[in-house]
Amino acid sequence: MIESVTVLTNPAAGPRTARATRAATTRLRERGLHVTEIAGDTPQHSLELVRRTVAAGTGALVAVGGDGLVWLAWQALAQSGIPLGIVPAGTGNDLARVLQLPSDPVAAADVVADGSTRTIDLGRVRAAGRPDHWFGTVLASGFDSLVTDRANRMRRPRGRLRYNVAMVAELAHLRLLPYRITLDDGDLEVAATMVAVGNASTYGGGMRIAPAARLDDGLLDVVIVTSANRTRLLRLFPTVYRGTHVELDEVTVRRTRRVRLECPGISAYADGEPLGPLPVDVEAVPGAGVVLVPGAQPPNV
């Protein structure tokens, strides 16, 4: 039974997160839990606070925010055994969506207070000269990461529209990229538009890029897209929300425990966060994360 929780927030996230934090912390206290709130001035400061919390011990860490804050939490929680609760208050909320967590902050706080946990796999990313990073949903590279690179360089417009504008601009430079992909059962040299590695099925606010990926099977789904035709790529994107893109000839899915991605000039993003340039080595680590979930959580999602 959980008696105390530490609530992590991003003070720069805006009024929606502030309202969700007030509602969730009030509900947690109503349910009899001791609540400690932490919020760093910068992402690095927040990570330091979370690591101190993990070292000191807490019944659970509750992230009130979006996928970026959840990603930050995993950097300290992975393999610690301390459960993560999520109060969705971001734009994408993809891990919360896969776990079928309620979007209402009071209902999400009730999930935490009820104390039902589930053990899940996490992806671990290693690259020479950089620290290990952990992710819960999807690692993206190729066209997807080029769009995100461009969007991050833009000041306007704000919100999701900036990503859409960046995508249109990047389409003008669409090209096949020379990937080398090392899987458990061998190497592939392939000209691809993008390669995504799914620990979970969904990223980007509901795009089911790896629809068959499961959080507890010890495997990664590697999705390879090989079309450089602008029209076909634009037609492919709506099908990603349904997960039916994997039926197309230009999409291949491989399942593996470990994968190495190499491609010059391409960066990787995991849970929407930048990890730096390829090459990277990605591994599914079974049971590395513990999450608080609804009591009727179905298996294999």
UniProtKB/TrEMBL annotation:
This is Diacylglycerol kinase. It is an enzyme of class 2 (transferase). One of its GO terms (biological process) is phospholipid biosynthetic process. One of its GO terms (molecular function) is ATP binding. Keywords: ATP-binding, Kinase, Lipid biosynthesis, Lipid metabolism, Magnesium, Metal-binding, Nucleotide-binding, Phospholipid biosynthesis, Phospholipid metabolism, Transferase. NCBIfam families: PRK11914.1, YegS/Rv2252/BmrU family lipid kinase. The lineage of its organism: Bacteria, Bacillati, Actinomycetota, Actinomycetes, Mycobacteriales. One of its GO terms (cellular component) is plasma membrane. Belongs to the diacylglycerol/lipid kinase family. Its cofactor is Mg(2+). The keyword ATP-binding applies. It holds the Pfam family YegS_C. Its EC number is 2.7.1.107.
